[in-house]
Amino acid sequence: MLQGISLACVRGDRELFKDINFSLEAGGLMQVRGPNGSGKTSLLRMLCGLSNPAAGEILWSGTSIRSLSGDYFAVMTYIGHLSGTKDDLTVIENLRISSALAGFEINDAQASEALEYMGLGGREALPVKVLSQGQRRRVALARLLVCKTALWILDEPLVALDVMAVKLIQELLEQHLKQDGMVVMTTHQEIDLMAASTTQLHLA
Amino acid sequence: MFMWIIKRDLLLAIRRQSDVLTTLFFFIIVVSLFPLSVGPEMNMLRTMAPGVVWVAALLASMLSLGRMFSNDYLDGTLEQMLLSPQSLSLLVLGKALAHWLVTGVPLVLMAPVLGIQYDLPVEALFVLTTALLLGTPVLSLIGAIGAALTLGLRGGGVLVSLLVLPLYIPVLIFGAGAVEANMAGVGFDAHLSLIGAFLLVSLVFAPWAAASSLRVSLE
What we know:
The complex is a heterodimer. By secondary structure, chain A is an alpha/beta fold.
């Protein structure tokens, strides 16, 4: 489904990586590993179409993601370092607006349900600026519950989360993988995920 | 989707009223300073009124351009917009429209009141307001291109004025010209039609240009 062919990334005049090949099938998990500054985030931004690889091509079902653009964005959810939440909006407004922009309009009840699952029940009406770092992360990750996309690209999803929340995300990811979803993620924390196939991609 | 982005930006503007009020008060103060400094010479005030109001509107609208995308850029919501299955141009159009509703419309509503300070006749006030109503959306649309190009740059605020102000000149000339033509007793339709034409052209091209610049800026 998702395929990378001899990808290369250049930042300034430094080559971060080259000749990266991988292929991810339905139900597959790919963990991108490597030390700080090895280009993990750059690779994920390429995979979601935010930036273009210096060389190589990324294919989704055999078609280049550049030519798919909107159709590809409809089946992909990216959660990056930045939470993508607005400080001045409430938790529930943030979730409803961000999922609407991702193409999934939800009502208040659906949004509350997702927030309840993420352990944010009772905090729906609070502005995001009063939340802790971990809670903001939960708001961002709640999007995974309401946006029914096949491919999840997650950049350090576990940062700032407590043990309970890590467990919650682990369950969520395993459920997604079981339903033939795909996950590409980076993490420095150890996490064991049951998946039909697991690929480890090491960036030097 | 288009409505969601407008709704979101209006909601944010309501939560952060200071941003909106700064632009409006800037406009009011600049326009009111001129009669105070020039003195109560009615003929002179009448002649300079259209120019002063338009220049103040230009500067006021530019004042808030920096915020158009930079807040969204910093908290990552812009990233998510770029990854939306909806066309980015449409989202940019929504943002420009929201920017106009928040900064342009208050100026248009305020203009007739401020025009009284310059002893403008009623008909000239009407022409001034109509010209502003047609012209201020152009300012937001062209401004969106500048804001997108300078996104994430240091000193972007200065750069955006250098980029955008020259592009505002046609609107300024015909906007102020419409009022002058009316006071001189010549028809002002041609001026308004031209501003309308600018509006249509920028409605088509500006969102597309700004969307392309955003993709480059975020790469």
